[in-house]
Amino acid sequence: MSASPSNLVEAFERTARERPERGVCLFDGRGRPAGRRTWPELLESSRLAAARLAATGAEPGLPVLACLPTSWAWFDAWMGSLLLGAWPASVAPPGVMGSSESHLRRIAAVLESTGAGHLIAPAGVRERLRETGATPSGTIVLTPDELAAASPASCVAATAAQPEDLAFLQFTSGSTGRPRAVSVSHGAALHNNQATSEAIGEPQGAPVHEWAVGTVTWLPLHHDMGLVGCLLLSMTLGLDITLLQPTAFLARPRLWLQELSKLGPTYSPAPNFGFQLCADRLQPEELEGLDLSRWRAALAGAEMVRPDTMAAFADRMASCGFRPEQLRPCYGLAEATLAVTVDVEGRGLRTREPPGGAVSTLGPGDAACVGRPLRDTRIEIRAPDGAALREDRLGEVCVQGPGLFSGYHGDPGATAEVLADGWLRTGDLGF
After folding, report:
1. End-to-end CA distance of the chain
2. Among 149, 179, 275, 354, who pairs with 358 as Cys (CB 3.0-4.6 Å)?
3. How confident is the model at residue 355 (pLDDT cuts 50, 70, 90)?
4. β-strand 140-142 against 118-120: which pairing, if any?
5. pLDDT grade, residue 106 (50/70/90)?
6. pTM for this predicted structure
7. Phi then psi for 20, rounded to 5 degrees?
8. Backbone angles phi, psi at 179, to 5 degrees
9. Alpha-carbon gap, residue 34 to 241, rounded angstroms
10. Using an 8 Å Cβ cutoff, are 63 and 116 in contact?
11. DSSP string, 174-243
């Protein structure tokens, strides 16, 4: 592809220009195709969405929160905000049984903490927020239909972003407290995408975007592995992407493998439980007709990689042409944009016995190797006092590199707790 872009919008425009035949294929909740848009078509619809957001009062440099499932409406809200120069952010949509109290509290918390000027959400979420008085006074809440019906502003003049400028916000899980908004710059996102592509493709002798046709994912777009590792990598480097609904995958895990088998050479990441679900649920007759030999990089990350899961998956999928060498463990987190390490050996899962005394922490059995740091990225294993530990000593994983976040949005205190002298304290253990 042509010269390196300086921001995500330029990367989007380059892909639309140089890979006009590729784009996004969307499936609905029942696992049926729900349309396809090429990158040029998606760029045009995102520009229109940006103009509509501007007409409703959205401005560059202010957060816009999308509380939507994987859908074209999500693209209008998130990509439209990006093109406007606003800061898109995404949270989980309401569940199939409606919006629970805990879900409403999470939405209210992120609206309050980010100062989001806009929330794009289903009508039911808006009504529940109004009933509970949880919507901040300065936040405009629009349904997808209302955004689509807005008359676009006649002139939208977003300033070209610099690499160090904030591109989007990504929320932490919030499992141990209020979710924090991770600030990701354009430069961090672009570097992480390019370096990840290089690492994934190392066993093939070329970055993944030079030999892969595309990817398939069922991960939600509010999850950093789905957003960054699949969608943004595809958008910035010119791949096809098929987006499945998480609920459809949980009900029919074969759908993921079925769509992967239709592509040419491909990569696709998933958490450990996704591989376990396939190994547990899929019967031999359901694997007939699948060809997984071209799934060159089956990336396992987002949670601890379990060797028994990887072995069970490889064994179950052997009849489909899947080889253990295709399994590629990796490690990352939102505060590093996404990827920190990727297995580049291409020799299958490699394990080591944990250091003495670590079994109770890491769990029984061997620990999986999650690979080497990405280009320009460094890792140290540190003791509680911050001293670097020698090999085979368990400690906190600390990371330095150009993919690190800029800080927690609006929370300098929390930022200072984990980010100092260019190093991120992840809170994760490794050796």
Report:
1. 38
2. 354
3. confident
4. parallel
5. confident
6. 0.94
7. -70, -20
8. -65, 140
9. 13
10. yes
11. -TTSS--EEEEEHHHHHHHHHHHHHHHHGGGTS-HHHH--EEEE-S-TTSHHHIIIIIIHHHHHT-EEEE
Quickly list DSSP for 326-373. GEEEEEE-GGGSSEEEE--S-S---EEPPPTT-HHHH-SSPEEP--EE
Find out whether 91 and 173 touch, Cβ atoms under 8 Å: no
CB contact burial 343-352 (16+ within 10 A = b; e otherwise): bbeeebbeee
Distance in angstroms (rounded) separating the CA atoms of residues 162 and 8: 10
User: Helix count (H) and strand count (E) of the chain?
Assistant: 16, 22
Residue 97: pLDDT band (50, 70, 90) is very low
Residues whose CB is less than 8 angstroms from the CB of residue 13 and which lie 6 or more positions away in sequence, other chains included:
5, 43
Contact 124, 152 (CB under 8 A): no
Q: For residue 194, is pLDDT > 80?
A: yes
Burial of 176 (C-beta count, 10 Å sphere; 0-12/13-18/19+): exposed
Contact 200, 267 (CB under 8 A): yes
Spatial distance between the Cα atoms of 303 and 366, rounded to a whole number of angstroms: 16
Pairing of strands 407-408, 181-185: antiparallel
- Inform me whether the pLDDT recorded for 220 exceeds 70: yes
- Written as one string, the DSSP assignment of 145-170 is HHHHHSPPPS---PPPPPTTSEEEEE
> CB neighbours of 252 closer than 8 A, spacing ≥ 6?
31
Q: Which of 291, 365, 352, 301 is nearest to 323 (CA)?
A: 291
Which value, to the nearest 10 degrees, does the dihedral of the CA atoms of residues 286, 287, 291, 293 take? 150
Q: Is 306 exposed, middle or buried (0-12, 13-18, 19+ CB in 10 A)?
A: buried
Q: Would you call 310 exposed, middle or buried from its count of C-beta atoms within 10 A (0-12, 13-18, 19+)?
A: buried
9, two tokens: 């919008």
d(CA 117, CA 86): 10
Rounded average pLDDT over 275-284: 96
List the Cα angle 79/342/234 in 5-degree steps: 25
Question: Comparing C-alpha atoms, which of 297, 153, 144, 281 is closest to residue 217?
Answer: 297
Question: Which residues, 6+ apart, have CB-to-CB distance to 21 below 8 Å?
Answer: 38
Q: What share of residues in the chain are helix, strand, coil (percent, to 5)?
A: 40, 25, 40
Report the alpha-carbon distance of residue 158 to residue 155 in Å, rounded: 10
